[in-house]
Amino acid sequence: RKEVEQDPGPFNVPEGATVAFNCTYSNSASQSFFWYRQDCRKEPKLLMSVYSSGNEDGRFTAQLNRASQYISLLIRDSKLSDSATYLCVVNNAGGTSYGKLTFGQGTILTVHP
Amino acid sequence: DAGVTQSPTHLIKTRGQQVTLRCSPISGHKSVSWYQQVLGQGPQFIFQYYEKEERGRGNFPDRFSARQFPNYSSELNVNALLLGDSALYLCASSLGFADTQYFGPGTRLTVL
Questions:
Q1: Which residues of chain B make contact with A99, given a CB cutoff of 8 A?
Q2: Contact at 8 Å (CB) between A5 and A50?
């Protein structure tokens, strides 16, 4: 079983749509959680951290359920510029004493006019 | 403020050769991590350095090595290159080893 699993998609949605991405992680000792965004042939960029209380940044809402080891990202009112690969990321996935990021394989989102 | 910088941006090598990739972290950051990303997959952790010492190593062969310098910049070395080493090599910097990591633009390595 992969340490971090997410639906690879692709997701093709029209502008204005709401889209949700899901992710599960296997190690209950994992300590912190993120969504990164990666444009084609570019580096991953931090989109947002994910907290158990849920957090929102404009059109983006992230949620963590530690009991289910489940992470989600909701994008409302999709824009063309949201087209990218979204990476679910877990830090200290193995309960280690260093900052190893473990990535899911990424979910591809294409927003069309 | 300058972000993470990496050099070179692209590199073409042949099998069996050796390569050195370089990374300069964000000013004030003391930790550098290296990741390998092959096409269609998420990045895979190779190393993390903090205060010039190796803190962690991923599941990569001994052909991969790295070091961190007193100015916190870092080098990743790969010996005896294989075709499968072709990938985007990403460097990430963070304040401390457990803090949020910010990525550089990467070095795209092609092994022929």
A1: 31, 33, 48, 55-56, 94, 96-99, 101
A2: no
